[in-house]
């Protein structure tokens, strides 16, 4: 069809650069091993940190909800699509997060869009870490607030932004709790101190920390014993929680406000019963099976130590998100492709997801991996890393 020539031209350029990608369909359930192109490979690219995508209790809860309430809700939350189970889950989540209230959005992405776009106006300023997730950046784009970007986890840079922000109604500092491409943890204790000194609000996006850090996976705020000192915690139910959705855990005031003003919440249909029931059961799993999180961290240490001993550069990671730095975009994809040939699925991440020239193969081990699988993966990394001159 005519009309898309300019798009095709750009795609052709990507093809020449070696950065054009197609989607890679799994032919099995998510797990420590998955089937891709008919081949069983070790999965190192999912966000399924605790293996909850196929937890029996969660599957059972989803099936029961499906049976009892059907597959869809037929409306947005604010008209006729709020089931009692939606509100019960939000109460349970708020209690879990040690906050007054919680509200669930369709995804982590829409949570950031909904929160940032609704609570900030032209009298306000948002102060954002330069490596924050795309959904935070897009949320900020939707506000009329002034914006300041501080250097990645650089507290001097944050403080100078705060010093210039005295005249605004609200100063909102926004940061990822765990940075999704580098696996480092935001220095929340310092951020809280600065926020208290300059009377700013803090919003933390715990997408990669929920289910991973803090008591029973309560997140970075709890990890640093900062309960009650961070104004807004957002996160996803789609990573370690294993299902789908985003949440904001904060005050009752913010919850009530978002019900009136959070546009994705208002204008997009609510989660199907099976999704909510599975999310609800996930909180029970986090409370009842803390050994999953222990296993996740044990595997993380084993795999990270193994990569470092082989001479790979894993950057500044402190969490299960472990990048293996490569640099060149095309070489990054080549590394990933060769790993696949050796039975390991670890996706290359390049521009625009990370800066140009900072290509990496990003790995995430899960609680489901056995030591044998991780050793097999390390052997593959060694072989391919040597072949391509990365180590
Ligand atoms: C993955 C991620 C999101 C998006 O969450 P979804 O539920 O997948 O939409 C938001 N913020 C951060 C920091 C993320 O890593």
TrEMBL record:
Keywords: Acyltransferase, Biotin biosynthesis, Pyridoxal phosphate, Transferase. Residues 40-381 form the Aminotransferase class I/classII large domain. GO terms for biological process: biotin biosynthetic process. Pathway: Cofactor biosynthesis; biotin biosynthesis. It catalyses: 6-carboxyhexanoyl-[ACP] + L-alanine + H(+) = (8S)-8-amino-7-oxononanoate + holo-[ACP] + CO2. Coiled coil: none annotated. Pfam families: Aminotran_1_2. Homodimer. This is 8-amino-7-ketopelargonate synthase. It comes from Halobacillus faecis.
